[in-house]
Amino acid sequence: MELFILRHAIAVPRGTLAYPNDDRPLTKDGISKMKEIAKGIARILPHLDAVLSSPLLRARHTAEIAVDALPFDGMIEICEELLPGSPLQDLYATLSRFRVSQNIMLVGHEPGLGLLASALLGAKGSVIEFKKGGLCCIEVEKFPPAPGALLRWNLSPKQLRLIGKK
């Protein structure tokens, strides 16, 4: 199984008075950049079998923008286990439902995504950090994962935008 781990795009800053519950939307710049990033993602991604997103608005909107550019006919599944602070074991249990799926995209937040990617690779702490709109591909044999998943690639938002312009 290949996991495509995507951090949400640029959102309204934390602490903005109009969004006190931390369910902040993407900014206009975040939307614009994510559309460019999605073009790059579409050039390198195979088909997707499933897309799981954190329920927070900024992640859901990022997932929608990405899916609009990709060969994916399904629905985005809201995944509470991608909320900030959720235990990795809960996410592993959710992902174990996708045993026959080959390509799954997860859309969420830092530091959780970095901790997930790092744990899949067998690291004790965080060794991968995602910029907003960054994406990596990790090959995983099964869930719960055994140590030693394989990092296929890790691309910054800038790299993805450049790929989309080719």
What does it look like?
By secondary structure, this protein is α/β, with parallel strands linked by helices. It has one domain (2-165): 3-Layer(aba) Sandwich (Rossmann fold), CATH 3.40.50.1240. It is built from five helices and six strands; from the N terminus they run βαβαβαβαββα. Strands 3-2-4-1-5-6 form a six-stranded mixed β-sheet, with helices on both faces. α1 packs across α2 and α1 (28-44) packs across α5 (157-165). The radius of gyration is 15 Å and the shape is globular.
Summarize the structure.
The protein has five helices and six strands.
The CATH class: Alpha Beta
CATH homologous superfamily title? Phosphoglycerate mutase-like
Radius of gyration (CA) equals 15 Å
- The share of residues in helices is 25-40%
Structural class: alpha/beta
Count the helices. How many? Answer: 5
Identify the strand order in the major beta sheet. Answer: 3-2-4-1-5-6
Shape: globular
DSSP summary, beta strand count? 6
**CATH architectural grouping:** 3-Layer(aba) Sandwich
Count of folded domains: 1
At CATH level 3, the topology is: Rossmann fold
**Major β-sheet, in short?**
6 strands, mixed
SSE series: EHEHEHEHEEH
Low-confidence stretches: none
Beta-strand portion reads 15-25%
